[in-house]
Specification:
alpha/beta; seven-stranded parallel beta sheet; three-stranded mixed beta sheet; 14 strands; binds nicotinamide-adenine-dinucleotide
Length: 334
C-alpha cells in the first residue's frame, strides 16, 4: 500500500518524502516541477511529472499503484504573486484541486492530509491563533486554501473522505540533505541567508509601521522536519480512525522580521544589510499559532527553535550554494 505525495519535489514535500522513506514507507510522487526540483527527490522513488488536475493521469497512477492515502502538498504558495495574479492561484490550487480530490474519491482513495495555511485566518483578532478563530483570508492564496478546506469538509460529509488539514505557519530550515530553494524566492529565511552569503547586497524588509513592537511583521517559524513529521503523525491518526479535522502547525513563538535578521547575524557572523520597502499587499501583521491541538491530537511537538532553523538552512546552503541546480537526483545517503 502506497502513499501518493503531490508536490513531493517541492520544499516541504521533498523533506516529508525523505522522512517517510527513513520509516520504510512506500511512496509515489506527482509534481509538475513548476516550483519543485527533480534533484530534491530520491531517484528510486516512483515519480510522475504532471499536474494534479490531470484526471486521466491520477486514474493511471491509481491503477499502477496500490494507493492507500495521499499527502497533497502541490499548490502555488506565494502571497504576493497571488495578489498580482489571482486567476493563477484559483486555477492551480482550486480548479485543479477540485479535479484532483474528485479523482481520488473516484479511485477509492479516501484518506488525505492536506497542506493548508495560517493565511486562511487573515488578520485574526485573537493571538495566538487557535483553530476555531474565524477565517477571513487577506489574499487570494489564502482564499484558495480556504476554499479547498471547505471542499474537504463537504466531500468528507457526502463521500466519506477522511482528512486532516494542516495549517502550517512559516516553514523554514533544512535537513542534512534538503533545504529551501525556490526561484524566485520570496521567503524571509532563505533571502536573509542569501544576503549573509553575499549573494544579495541587502535583504528587503517590507513595511516598518505594522502594529508590532518594532513595526515589522511577526511570524511563527517552524522547522521543515518538524512539519514533515506532523504529516506522518496525521496519516497514522487517520489510519487509526481519527476524525477529520483542521490542525495548526506552529511553535507558539513569534519573531519579527528584524528579530529574524538579528538572529541570522548571530548564526552566520555576517552583517546582513537591510533595505526598508513599502509593505506588501496581503501581508497580515502578526501570525502566531496556538499549537496545543497538534500536541493533544497528534502528539506533535516541534523540536527546533529559530536559531536551530537558521543554522540548519545555513549549513545546507553552504554545502549547496546553487540550491538544487548543482545537484543530480539525491540518494538517501547523499
Ligand atoms: N512554505 C511555507 O511556509 C508554507 C506555509 C503554509 C502552507 N504551505 C503549503 O505547503 C505546500 C508546500 O509548500 P512548499 O513551500 O513546499 O512549496 P513548493 O513550491 O516548494 O512546493 C510545491 C510543489 O507543488 C508543485 N505543484 C504546484 N502546483 C502543481 C500542480 N498543479 N500539479 C502538480 N504539482 C504542482 C510545485 O512544482 C512544487 O514542487 C503548499 O501547498 C503550500 O501552500 C507552505
Amino acid at each position: 500500500m502506497k502513499i501518493l505525495v503531490t508536490g513531493g519535489a517541492g520544499y516541504i514535500g521533498s523533506v516529508t518524502v525523505e522522512r517517510l522513506l527513513e520509516r520504510g514507507a512506500q511512496l509515489v510522487v506527482l509534481d509538475d516541477l513548476v516550483r519543485g526540483h527533480r534533484a530534491a527527490l530520491d531517484k528510486n522513488v516512483p515519480f510522475y511529472q504532471g499536474r494534479v488536475g490531470d484526471r486521466a493521469l491520477i486514474a493511471r497512477i491509481a491503477r499502477e499503484h496500490d494507493i492507500e492515502s495521499c499527502i497533497h502538498f502541490a499548490a502555488l504558495a506565494y502571497v504576493g504573486e497571488s495578489v498580482a495574479d489571482p486567476a493563477k492561484y484559483f486555477e492551480n490550487n482550486v480548479e485543479e484541486g477540485v479535479a484532483f480530490i474528485g479523482s481520488l474519491v473516484k479511485a477509492g482513495i479516501r484518506r488525505i492530509v492536506f497542506s493548508s495555511t495560517c493565511a486562511t485566518y487573515g488578520e485574526p483578532e485573537q493571538m495566538p491563533i487557535s483553530e476555531n478563530c474565524p477565517q477571513w483570508p487577506k489574499n487570494p492564496y489564502g482564499w484558495s486554501k480556504f476554499t479547498m478546506e471547505r471542499l474537504l469538509e463537504s466531500y468528507g460529509h457526502s463521500y466519506g473522505l477522511k482528512f486532516v488539514g494542516l495549517r502550517y505557519f512559516n516553514a523554514s530550515g533544512a535537513t542534512q540533505v534538503r533545504g529551501e530553494y525556490h526561484v524566485p524566492e520570496s521567503h524571509l529565511v532563505p533571502n536573509v541567508l542569501s544576503a549573509a552569503a553575499g549573494e544579495m547586497s541587502e535583504v528587503a524588509v517590507f513595511g516598518k509601521d505594522y502594529p508590532t513592537p518594532d513595526g515589522t511583521c511577526i511570524r511563527d517559524y517552524v522547522h521543515v522536519a518538524d512539519l514533515a513529521d506532523a504529516h506522518i503523525l496525521a496519516l497514522d491518526y487517520l489510519r487509526k480512525g481519527g476524525k477529520s479535522d483542521f490542525i495548526n502547525l506552529g511553535t507558539g513563538h513569534g519573531y519579527s522580521v528584524l528579530e529574524v535578521i538579528e538572529a541570522a547575524r548571530k548564526v552566520t557572523g555576517a552583517p546582513i544589510p537591510t533595505k526598508m520597502e513599502p509593505p506588501r499587499p496581503g501581508d497580515p501583521s502578526r501570525l502566531v499559532a496556538n499549537a496545543e491541538k497538534a500536541h493533544k491530537i497528534l502528539g506533535w511537538k516541534p523540536a527546533f527553535d529559530l536559531a536551530a532553523i537558521l543554522r540548519s538552512q545555513w549549513e545546507w546552503r553552504k554545502k549547496h550554494p546553487q540550491g538544487y541546480l548543482d545537484q543530480k537526483e539525491l540518494s538517501p545517503s547523499s
